[in-house]
Amino acid sequence: MTLSLEDGTEVADVMDYGGRKVPTFENSFIKRVDEIKHDFQSLEGDILIYGYMKSGTHWLWEIIRMVIGNDTNVCERSSKMDTFLESVSLDQLSKCPTPRILSSHLMPDSLPESILKNSKVVVPIRHPKDVAVSMFHHLEAEKNGTNLRCGWENFIKHVWFNPDRALYATWANFTSAAWKLCSENENYCPVVYEQLLESPTDIIRDLANFLGNELSQERLDVICQATKFNNMKLKKRASEKALESTFFPGYTMFRKGTKGDWKNHFTEDLNNFFDSHMKDIMAEDDNIRQVMLFYND
């Protein structure tokens, strides 16, 4: 279905799942996700990377794979998408080697309760303005899929904060729900994207301890070096061949991997609009207020 604004401007091609808009997946998406929600069996050792789109889930998948396994080379032939709940079937999940590193962007009420209760859940958090920029470029490049085409200003003013148009959910609604789960459950571990950029040794060590894997300093150093963003971007090209049927040629999930790129995209007017909405959200949502304490701009 085509999502449009009141004036007829086309936004994107989307699917409806449970009253929420989601990116365009193949036709079997709704059946597969329903099967996973109702029939999924959690396994001992399951890990779930549970974050909003473009918050570092692909990066974390590679880091966690190295932390819990024996291989400290970037996996060039597979990726997070191999166990992404929105892209695989229940049968495929049942055949995955354990421990499974799963991931999803769906809201909690669209996921099986067992995966949220029994897995070790890693929740990436990233500055919402940088998420918005990265998500816009991602969806705009998806020419044979979601094909975002409303323009940057319309995306921020008419899509980003609107629960009837935002994909999966608004950043605030998803992040509030995820942060609440982090606050109330010991099997959740938030990872702040910017802290991972600035202090990878400390953050990866803490993440490894959460996952029950004590790392030697030597192994920790190797993982930090291997998962530097530019190294990942180079090494993951082979595993991203499958993207060529959906995205512009040369597109990569690893676009910039920086913080503060939003300053190159937001005009003063758009920044004031965004800040005003965030101020209203924080006044009513203590979870978002706590998350935004990580940021001072």
Blueprint (SSEs and pairs):
Layout: E1 2-4, E2 10-17, E3 20-23, H1 29-39, E4 47-50, H2 57-68, H3 90-94, E5 101-104, H4 113-118, E6 120-125, H5 128-141, H6 152-160, H7 171-184, E7 188-192, H8 193-198, H9 200-210, H10 217-226, H11 229-235, H12 268-284, H13 286-291
Parallel strand pairs: 4-5, 4-6, 6-7
Antiparallel strand pairs: 1-2, 2-3
Helix pairs in contact: 9-10
CATH top-level class: Alpha Beta
- Supply the CATH superfamily name: P-loop containing nucleotide triphosphate hydrolases
* Radius of gyration (Å): 19 Å
Biggest beta-sheet profile: 4 strands, parallel
- What is the correct CATH architecture? 3-Layer(aba) Sandwich
Number of domains: 1
Strand order, largest beta sheet: 5-4-6-7
The CATH topology corresponds to Rossmann fold
Strand tally is 7
Question: Approximately how much beta-strand content do the residues carry?
Answer: 5-15%
The helix tally amounts to 13
How far apart are the first and last residues' alpha carbons, in Å? 37 Å
Mean pLDDT: 89
Helix-strand pattern: EEEHEHHEHEHHHEHHHHHH
The coarse silhouette is globular
Write up this protein.
A hairpin with a 5-residue loop joins β1 and β2. The protein has helices at 29-39, 57-68, 90-94, 113-118, 128-141, 152-160, 171-184, 193-198, 200-210, 217-226, 229-235, 268-284, 286-291; strands at 2-4, 10-17, 20-23, 47-50, 101-104, 120-125, 188-192. It has one domain: 3-Layer(aba) Sandwich (Rossmann fold). The protein is built from 13 helices and 7 strands. The longest helix is centred in the last third of the chain and has 17 residues, at 268-284. With 297 residues, it is an alpha/beta fold. The radius of gyration is 19 Å and the shape is globular.
